[in-house]
Amino acid sequence: MKRMIDKLLPDVITALNKSVSCVTQNSVRRGSAMVGQQAVVNVLENLISILFPGCHLQHDSSGDDLSGALEKMAINLTDQCHKSFEHQCSIDICPEGCDDCAERAREAVATLVKALPAILSILRKDFVAAYEGDPAAKSTLEVVMSYPGVYAVIVHRIAHCLYKSKVPLIPRVMSEHAHSKTGIDIHPGAAIGEGFFIDHGTGVVIGETCVIGKNVKIYQGVTLGAISFEKDAEGHLIKGIQRHPYVEDNVVIYAGATILGGATKIGANSEIGGNVWLTHSVPPGSKVYNQQPQPFIRAADGMWKTVDGPWDDFGAGI
Amino acid sequence: MKRMIDKLLPDVITALNKSVSCVTQNSVRRGSAMVGQQAVVNVLENLISILFPGCHLQHDSSGDDLSGALEKMAINLTDQCHKSFEHQCSIDICPEGCDDCAERAREAVATLVKALPAILSILRKDFVAAYEGDPAAKSTLEVVMSYPGVYAVIVHRIAHCLYKSKVPLIPRVMSEHAHSKTGIDIHPGAAIGEGFFIDHGTGVVIGETCVIGKNVKIYQGVTLGAISFEKDAEGHLIKGIQRHPYVEDNVVIYAGATILGGATKIGANSEIGGNVWLTHSVPPGSKVYNQQPQPFIRAADGMWKTVDGPWDDFGAGI
Amino acid sequence: MKRMIDKLLPDVITALNKSVSCVTQNSVRRGSAMVGQQAVVNVLENLISILFPGCHLQHDSSGDDLSGALEKMAINLTDQCHKSFEHQCSIDICPEGCDDCAERAREAVATLVKALPAILSILRKDFVAAYEGDPAAKSTLEVVMSYPGVYAVIVHRIAHCLYKSKVPLIPRVMSEHAHSKTGIDIHPGAAIGEGFFIDHGTGVVIGETCVIGKNVKIYQGVTLGAISFEKDAEGHLIKGIQRHPYVEDNVVIYAGATILGGATKIGANSEIGGNVWLTHSVPPGSKVYNQQPQPFIRAADGMWKTVDGPWDDFGAGI
């Protein structure tokens, strides 16, 4: 085996070096300059366990030195943001000029640390929404410890704060970690009001320019996405515009609904039914549902016939 | 950086302590009393590797001392259940009184250990259902090692046993671990018969009060959920009732179907088509399908016209 | 507790040994002969970090000895493939005979190592497709570091190469790792052309016999699956046939679409709308969409009435 590999290696190595360098040029050229996915995830998990001791780690860190832990996290994150700004500068001509990278990183993290109390008070309203929104919820701690929708929102509130400070890459790596863990894909750019609850959540997609009001509740498989064929006269993708829907206060969107387009507004207090596919706006108080299909039954004569529903009294117990 | 953080810290710390204590009061007050998510997951993974040596870990533990491993797991899990019962007592006035917590934990784990042989014999039928239900399955070992639907069911059979013993939090943390790993969200409360197979599984949601018969097969994206607007005359959420569907024996439910409501029964031997949205019962032997859409084609003249399908003979090879 | 467990143990142990041995017989009989899920995942992650240094690990490994790392990975993977071939031989009478297992493992890994440059050049086109296909993408590095669809395709190109060498189990364990991490379930058998992009991706299922052309773009929740009731005259599942769709070049398939059947061809340059459920072929240039539902509004008088849409001018700002 070893011999065969040895024979193959030189050509493969050359190809690899060539291939790799064209993909992650900068990280290769500048050694360990760029932070890896895992490093970002570690800082994120670290911050979350500072915010909610004993919920996600093996032990309750409340005995530890909180300020020390917070400071360590902040210095770590600042270093990663610094590298991330530098990397961005190296691929596009940074308008602010590279000297600002260190300063911008410090400011981004300071802004996040300052915002933590405000973030926590919004999250408390999210937790209450989750607890009250799900009949199966037994306690707030259960919600914080085990609800994927709650975890995704915790990560989003942190990543969104870094996104607003224009930190490259890191907010997106954080949100993709939450996506991987929960199946809920919230772009760090989305603006989401308090009291937000995603139940179950697998398959949820919330796009970069979404604007969501207060006390909105959505279920698994809901997409708030872009209409991909929004192109200009020359047929180029239009960038930097509102690509994703507005969802106003107190809207409920049920499993599998797909709502697309930057001109689409879901009016306050509306209810969107399961599997509905919607690319235009609906006024406040709307209820949008798909027609239910007529079921068919194979009769004794082997023929198919329609049957009027419902059959809540057909008496097939279990 | 350090200086800036130092300046911010006092206020932030105060806010954090205040914020945190209102969320996870008990775990903070009682130091490491509450078990973290990760600790529960470790015991779960440990039990699974005892049940299926060599399938999920790096090595086959069959050489190890099985009874020793089992005993260690049981003592560990008992400790976690004990803390979990105590935590529950501390947030609601525990009807049984706190002295029972230790005893209830011991009983819950003993019940689980006693049930392991029965659980394994049910799981064997689940494995056979997976192997026979998927033309792509090459061996039972492949099914046990790599099928997410099988992993989710293994975890469910364990968590459901603890749920029946009324252990707080832990069953839900276990099922959410499976949810995170597989995208399959089965509430530990669901009652599921033998020979159950979930293929692919991402996005599947099975609610707390679901009752599923024998040899049921479901596909990715299927929801067996509650109709959220089940409220009483005063408009309060009705609790403690049957909120989720009954699914009888030998039913097949295809990708993306959403079946809602505690009064909804899917009769035995029925087939529910992809993306169907159903909130009423159907009798045994039903086949429920959505109408297929008519495709549109842009013709040479730039106009759209409908075309009759199917076109299995339109000859566009690949 | 300990006493209770001790009392239970003998019976349980007996049952466990019996139960386990019927599930993973071989791995139990042959000690650590069979590789565990985690061992396969480690080699896979190791290979990916060799291909894309600094993207997924904590540090950039480009400083390390590339050829050494590659050789270590290859020897490791060969050992796992060897055990996997042996296991397969032990459950079915291996046509080639067990002596070939070691040789077949060496050849499979050599084929993969030789193919790495070609795989990387295809992946480069996939990365470009992702970067150009998503208005939210800020850089290629962001795409490689954080896009789940890109990660799933990286793993698929590796697993598919081992699948073509008929390595048992391992390709499937690799693809299920990607499924667990991304919610994207691509069977290692699927044949997928260059420039392939899956956006968001949670809930995507691509079956074993799918054939997908160049520059195809699909969204979350898309299923390219089998029609399960394809049975022969005696009612047995038909195996070894084309069970999954053909998708030709430049097709776009939007969120939640379900396309089933081995006789189903999606003609080149077609567009399949969200939540469409399709079991027959459509010609090139087709656009297939579901009708949008008419929304209902509760009027002041408490009655429901339909309203003509769209309401992009109903003026409900946010």
> Which overall shape of chain A is indicated by the principal axes computed on the Cα atoms?
globular
Spans where pLDDT lies below 50 across 5 or more residues of chain A: 20-33, 310-318
Number of domains of chain A: 2
Largest interface by residue count?
A-B, 75 and 89 residues
CATH architecture of the largest domain in chain A: Orthogonal Bundle
What is the SS-derived class of chain A?
alpha/beta
Neighbour order of strands in the largest sheet of chain A: 1-4-7-10-13
For the record, give the distance between the C-alpha atoms at the N and C termini of chain A, rounded to a whole number. Answer: 59 Å
CATH superfamily of the largest domain in chain A: serine acetyltransferase, domain 1
Helix content of chain A: 40-55%
Question: Which assembly state applies to the chains in this document?
Answer: homotrimer
What is the radius of gyration of chain A? Answer: 24 Å
Elements of chain A, N to C (H/E) = HHHHHHHHEEEEEEEEEEEEEEEE
Task: Assess the beta-strand content of chain A as a share of residues.
Answer: 5-15%
> What's the average pLDDT of chain A?
81
**CATH top level assignment of the largest domain in chain A:** Mainly Alpha
The major sheet of chain A is characterized as:
5 strands, parallel
Treating each run of at least 4 consecutive H or I residues as one helix, how many helices of chain A?
A: 8
